[in-house]
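anyone seen this seq b4? input:
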Amino acid sequence: MATKCDPYHTTRPEEPPERNVYHNYKDCPAGKHIKPEHLASGTAGRPRCDDCKKMD
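predicted toks r here
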């Protein structure tokens, strides 16, 4: 079972723009690709990641 966490996002621009999302699962495949130096807390007003939605 996936582990929920506080929302996080990347500080780098994402391409395509629909990838500008936040994550709320530690095990999110897309979220795992965020480098530590680009990791930020919160949602930044972005929609939630589709992969995270599937983990609910």
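Residues 4-55 form one domain. The chain has one domain: 4-55. kinda curious what u guys think
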